[in-house]
Amino acid sequence: MTIAFDIGGSKIVSAEVDASLQLEEKARIATPTEDYDSFRQAIAAHAGTGDDPVAISIAAVIDPVTGILRSANIPCISGRALAADLQQDLGRPVHVLNDAKAFVLSEAKVGLGRGHATVFGIILGTGIGGAVVLNGQLLIGATGSAGEWGHGPAAAVRSGADLPLVRCGCGQMQCVDALTGARGLENLHRHLSGASLDSVSLLQSWAQQDPAAAATMDVYLDVLGGALANAVNMFDPDIVLVGGGLSKADGLVPALDQELRKRVLNPRKEPLCIATEIGPEKGLIGATAHMREQLG
Q1: Pick the CATH number of 2-97 from 3.40.190.10, 3.40.50.10860, 3.30.420.40, 3.30.565.10
Q2: Inter-residue contact 249 to 203 (CB < 8 Å)
Q3: Mean pLDDT confidence for 76-83
Q4: Which of 4, 28, 116, 194 has the maximal Cβ count within 10 Å?
Q5: Read out DSSP for the chain?
Q6: Structure confidence at residue 144 (pLDDT)
Q7: 259: number of CA atoms within 13 Å, CB side?
């Protein structure tokens, strides 16, 4: 048995995961984002008193050498070696994995990516994330950032649109993440149209063929599709699984797929982008599977 946690900026979900990766959810609590001691205590309170190992999927980039985390949504864990600290608290193995990587590994093991040699999963939400599984093995990279396709320079090559100059949460200027996450989409619409709309309303207006929303979404798909084409050319995946809050908008994933397939090096006849759900169970299963692989 494994005690697993899926931790985001708003909530912590805990569960027990058995040998066949079946899970039983145990608790949902608010994430203590500002106080590190409170954060550690929350994990300890729901990890039980046995000696079962602990697997954690979390919204952070983890350095594979030092174990130190960077997180925009959970400030108290940035700069901390969370796995080592929790292992000291609990007296048993603790494994921590980036949430996007856990999501994609889960899909590759037991979801829509099962049976595919190369699975690329992307998250379209508040931010833009991603991860790659090659022949069943999760690609981590030298610094833990493999698959993070949202942190390169944004460009509107097809439309030639003038893009707003925005600083990304990572510290760089003009990242794809800063222009195509939910807040980035809102900023892009304000820049292009002069109107303020939240991302949900904007996507609904686009689905209703509103001209201003359509103009913004054309630029949005240009930026997003171009960046995604670069990543697809690099990894050449069998499938691109798309999750996150923005991906639920009517027509967005098919539109992105159409944009992408026009711009990749080797055109695909069949759809490449497939919508999927991202829920806590994906993080719980993915983190557990990866921990078991690492422990042998």
Answers
A1: 3.30.420.40
A2: yes
A3: 96
A4: 4
A5: -EEEEEE-SSEEEEEEE-TTS-EEEEEEEE---S-HHHHHHHHHHTS-SS---EEEEESSEE-TTT--EE-SS-GGGTT--HHHHHHHHHSS-EEEEEHHHHHHHHHHHHSTTTT-SEEEEEEESSSEEEEEEETTEE---SSS-TT-TTSSB---TTT-PPPP--B-TTS-BSBHHHHHSHHHHHHHHHHHHS----HHHHHHHHHTT-HHHHHHHHHHHHHHHHHHHHHHHHH--SEEEEESGGGGSTTHHHHHHHHHHHHSSS--SS--EEE----HHHHHHHHHHHHHHHH-
A6: 87
A7: 24
With a cut of 90, say whether residue 280 has pLDDT above it: no
Alpha carbon distance 182, 59 (integer Å): 16
239-243 and 118-124 strand pairing: parallel
Compute the residue count for the chain. Answer: 296
Q: Is the pLDDT of residue 265 over 90?
A: yes
Interior CA angle at 35 toward 29 and 41, to 5°? 55
Instruction: Tell me where in the chain the CATH 3.30.420.40 domain(s) lie.
Output: 2-97, 112-275
Overall fold of domain 112-275: Nucleotidyltransferase; domain 5 (3.30.420)
pLDDT at 50 over 80: yes
- Is the confidence at residue 279, as pLDDT, over 90? no
Average pLDDT, the chain: 93
